[in-house]
Specification:
CATH architecture of the largest domain in chain A: 3-Layer(aba) Sandwich
Number of strands of chain A: 15
Order of helices and strands of chain A: EEEHEEEEHEHEHEHEHEHEHEHE
Number of domains of chain A: 2
Number of helices of chain A: 9
Distance between the termini of chain A: 12 Å
CATH superfamily of the largest domain in chain A: NAD(P)-binding Rossmann-like Domain
Shape of chain A: globular
Structural class of chain A: alpha/beta
Mean pLDDT of chain A: 94
Largest sheet of chain A: 7 strands, mixed
CATH topology of the largest domain in chain A: Rossmann fold
Low-confidence stretches of chain A: none
CATH class of the largest domain in chain A: Alpha Beta
Oligomer: homodimer
Largest interface: A-B, 36 and 36 residues
Helix content of chain A: 25-40%
């Protein structure tokens, strides 16, 4: 066992898309767990779009990552040492360790993961924060009703694929949006979307709107928002009266909107909310971890039985996390993006 | 009793602010009530900002008024003839008659008004659609809690003054926005706002935001939206986490936004909704008339006792309705705008 650990720090703030220069690979001494803390050797870490937001120096859910600070991430691994009776060496645990090879956290910030119940990677995706985000946002703010129509983008990602599958099980027509023919085929064949549109096939929001209109002959009742930009502009005029828009992300606008989406103005948004009596709710799952046991009780059996499916895209090595992250932001991943650390 | 009636029709659609040429004064034969219908001679009609939206040829709550069609309005008056057992000549009734001297409506579209319970004009304002709008939007979507801070514009109007008084009674800090020193004094002295800001005193949204920040030291929990534009731009960055924005109007944007509010972009709205977990709900009171008895039971006694106050601005004569309407859209009225017809 090494006396050292590795981490990836924020070297500088990106303008627009992150580049390799925004990250630095650092080596430091392995930390010693303090009172009540647990030392974990991480096996897998998660890469998610929200991390892009943390790289900006702007008010968000949480304080931004400081320059020189460790990039944030959820990660899962094996306990090496514990100063808490709740964890023993050899146990597996999930926590917000960051982009690191090892980390210490207080035991009450960790969740035990049972490696005999299936691959521990699911704690990062379908049974982790992304899965909980889709489940919570759809049920709490989407309020799905059988016979309605739902639209979600990033349809093959860990949030979109959960939303689509849960909505389909609830009796809704599900229309996905994804980037590329291969992802669209995956959305329909693996995740059961009724239709999936390739946003790259449409030159602008108007063209995408026309295709969405054809795919949603009864209009759109729920738009699960995780991308904003062109998709939002295409969707808004198609929303039905009393429609719902849960907002958990806006990946196309992280780092600022670059003069695109010119017809998507503040008055257009506000007018649609008013004249169609829309309910628009922003949320971030860290405020709703109290719902985790309810989610697990309902969804874990559906994962075990294969009734809800998931897909993972696993990169190798902490040193490759920045490249995997940058590729993911451009849609290069196929399924939940994870980094294997050991 | 004349055999004729008068009405005001939409002569042409306005571009921006309406002008006298957009209206025409018409005389026609007094209608005869059909089966189940009631003929009413109107005494008072209501003028409200939503009517501006109806003049545009665009999707709104309802179909726009057709060229040559009668302008819409709620009005209250005396029954002249009735083909329904529910109404007798001499009864008073409220209904959506329009800008007219007389009108026929089915009895089931009318509400009886008791002239012995107070002035019949309250059926157009504090105990009519504007009062119900404020009460419903505040309770259903604003979810006020004691100790929170509420902001509402058009604070001396029939919706804003109801919202402010109900919120104050619920233990909130209430901050109004109005146009002019006289309205601001009225808001504080008559309607009990803790502070009222004169939006005309602030050159732009940034200056208004600074004043609002000082008036709301604990941030804003509820922004009751009826104006949009500069006020919305000033308010959004001051919203607290888990804030609520009921949206019942956007008077500053009717007829289109004129290149103002340049910093109020779609991404700014969406980002605030996301990172502060806001709940934004559009609504229009015509979908919630089933709540009217609940409202009356709760609020009518508070009007009778003087615990909730109201103010009316009464213009004289149907022929002067267009001028009163145009003045109201520019903030020229003081209290609920009504037109006396007889």
């Amino acid at each position: 066992m090494s006396d050292q650990m590795q981490r990836i720090a924020l070297a500088s703030r990106p303008t627009g898309a992150p580049t390799a220069e925004n990250f630095s690979f650092e080596t430091s001494v392995l930390p010693t767990p303090g009172p009540g803390e647990v030392l974990v050797k991480l096996h897998y870490m998660s890469l998610d779009p929200y991390m892009r937001g943390r790289m900006d120096d702007a008010k968000s859910y949480a304080a931004p990552v400081a320059i020189g600070g460790t990039m944030e991430a959820g990660a899962v691994g094996e306990v090496l040492a514990s100063n808490s009776p709740a964890f023993q060496p050899g146990d597996f645990a999930f926590g917000m360790f960051g982009w690191v090879s090892h980390g210490c956290l207080p035991a009450n910030q960790l969740q035990k993961v049972d490696p005999n119940q299936g691959p521990i990677t699911v704690a990062l995706g379908v049974l982790g924060m992304p899965g909980l985000t889709g489940w919570y946002g759809l049920n709490e703010h989407g309020k799905p009703k059988a016979g309605e129509t739902l639209v979600v983008a990033a349809a093959t990602g860990p949030v979109g694929s959960m939303v689509g599958q849960l909505a389909k099980r609830a009796g809704l027509r599900t229309v996905g949006i994804a980037g590329g023919a291969d992802k669209c085929a995956l959305a329909v064949e693996t995740f059961g979307f009724d239709v999936c549109l390739d946003h790259r096939s449409y030159a602008d929001a108007a063209a995408l709107r026309e295709a969405l209109g054809a795919a949603c002959p009864d209009g759109i009742d729920i738009y699960f928002e995780n991308v904003a930009g062109k998709v939002l502009e295409a969707v808004l005029p198609l929303m039905n009266d009393f429609g719902r828009i849960p907002v958990c992300g806006m990946i196309s606008w992280y780092g600022g909107a670059k003069g695109a989406d010119a017809d998507l103005t503040a008055p257009m948004i506000w007018r649609n909310i008013l004249v169609k009596y829309l309910s628009v709710n922003g949320f971030i799952i860290m405020n709703h971890f109290d719902q985790y046991p309810v989610f697990m009780k309902e969804v874990a059996p559906l994962i075990a039985s294969g009734e809800i499916r998931y897909l993972e895209d696993i990169a190798e090595g902490l040193e490759n996390a920045p490249a995997a992250f940058m590729a993911m932001l451009k849609g290069g991943n196929m399924g939940k993006q994870i980094v294997k650390l050991v």
